[in-house]
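Review form for a predicted model. The reviewer records the input and the model, then writes brief findings.
Reviewer: anonymous (R2)
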Amino acid sequence: MKLSRTRGRRALGLGAALAAGALVLTACGTDDNSGLPGAVDFTVDDLDCGPGGTLLASGSSAQANAMEVWVNTYQANCEGSQINYKATGSGAGVQEFLQGTTAFAGSDSLLSPAEVEESRRVCRDGGRAIHLPMAAGPIALGYNVPGVPDLALDASTLARIFDSAITRWDDPAIAALNPGVDLPDLAITPFHRSDGSGTTENLTTYLHESAPEDWPHEPDKAWRGRGGQSADGSSGLVGMVQQNEGAIAYFELSYAHQNDLDTVNVDTGADEPVEATVDNSSNAIGQAEVVGEDGDLALELDYATREEGVYPIVLVTYEIVCDGGNDPATLDLTRAFLDYTAGEEGQRALAEIDYAPISGDVIEQVRNRVEAMD
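Model under review:
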């Protein structure tokens, strides 16, 4: 079924768009993601708009910066539309979607089979929840070690750091990976998310698959490692790294760049340690396989890759939607907004703010699934 749209009008100026975004893109706890890198132009020529109205969504804080650009751009070009996205974290966002209080959820981890089954109560007329990969990017490992602007770590060493088995920055395992670097005799303070997080699940999946002997814990949205300290949300972890010498934590690359934090180069066994960049994470997405069935676009990543220039700790954010049986009151606006985010303009904006666009056949499938929502 084709969506009937009215032509968008650039009725709001940039200042008004920013003000609108500040009102409707709300965050939970410390995940207040303002101050996007560089000057972002929210005007788009000939953006196709939905019918107007208000849309509620919540979830992944990893995509909060991307959602800020998408929301502001859509509202700047589509008068009468208001998109309310709350960066509550993937776990909370999925629960709100399953309770029927939001039109879609952002999640950095896949739904469980039980959650898919539960979604049938919300998705009417035989519909169910599916995964639409919409943005990707590296999970950066930010650290605060004075005098060490370049640092390489491998999966085994990272696992032992975050599991409190390596406790000082001049540990022989770290020194062996960084020959010639003057590492200080400084205590390591690893920080992890206190809230349920798809970022945590993706990091721990990498550790579990790449260094299972050193990270025996099953991947989970909730932190399972031993010791360390916690903070709420990605921006909470950023604050802890900034304030504590010897700290290390994990968050999306955009947070590291916004706050001028040093990030770890990951030694994957390739000839050179791999830097956390958009291009290097795009290389990882290019190796991903679609493992979802019947229109579901869940991806499987190769966390243990040794390919040159492939950053292995990559997060894919999915929009969780009903493939059918959506609420008629919000269907057209949901479809129009996601059509924009998955479209060329929406995906092009990602690279400017340290996200990796979804490309190739996968994004074409996403666009087809959005168009088919009913």
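Findings: DSSP finds 13 helices and 16 strands in the chain.
Further findings: Confidence is low (pLDDT under 50) at residues 1-35.
Recommendation: see findings above.
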